[in-house]
Amino acid sequence: MATPFNVPLSMASCSIGLPKHTFHQRSKPSPNKASRASSSPSPTSSPTRAHASQDVREDDYDALCDAGRQLGQLVRAHNLEIIVLQPFSNFEGWPAGSQEREDAFTRARGWIRIMEAVGTDMLQVGSSDSEGITADGARLAADLGELADLLLEKNFRLAYENWCWATRAPRWKDVWTIVKQADRPNIGLCLDTFQSAATGFRGWFSVEVFDGKFESKYGNDLNKFAKKARETHEKLLRDVDEKRALTGLE
């Protein structure tokens, strides 16, 4: 469905339903089967690993890619698309020559393979919450730039998100500074309202709701949940659009 900002309505697959629900069940409740809807799965989440009919290691990229290809087919069968793979974490800032830095780039190459398998062109990277990473913003930017270069080889993009619990870049202004320093054509911001609100930027507000009564409210009726989520999303965008009209903001 179209929104007032021409952005496709998207839902993180991990936010739909309960752990017992399969990826097929999570993909099925499209708000409008004729529309362009989207999903953002994690390659190491339980639904993804379970789709391979067995639990696999997080670094078993052959098995994860096989599961990813199956998931891509399933998503397309439901007239959906995967707009982003997430969350890729604890990547930037490790000391040069360290095992952690080597592992980070090994993971990056593995996730790029998974992106190809599921059929998406964007990787969401959360600002690292690891201890022991550098406080040098230029070094953080250089690492993100190297990752962006790896992604660009496949014409892929990088969306960098501030995580409010991050070690060095918890605020949206922090990640924006790093993105500008990285200076790559395929890197930009992922502005998460929850993360921004949690760090005190009152111009944003959270739309992430963690409902402990999901099962009593919805049971296995994921369509009911998706309908409620869509209505809330539409109301949010209408409210924002009205505020823009009143204030004259673009």
From TrEMBL:
Domain of life: Eukaryota
Gene3D superfamilies associated with the record: Divalent-metal-dependent TIM barrel enzymes
The Xylose isomerase-like TIM barrel domain, residue ranges: 59-195
InterPro entries: IolE/XylAMocC-like, Xyl_isomerase-like_sf, Xyl_isomerase-like_TIM-brl
Residue ranges, annotated region (Disordered): 20-56
Biased composition (Low complexity): 28-53
Protein name stated in the entry: Xylose isomerase-like TIM barrel domain-containing protein
Organism of derivation: Parascedosporium putredinis
Species classification: Eukaryota, Fungi, Dikarya, Ascomycota, Pezizomycotina
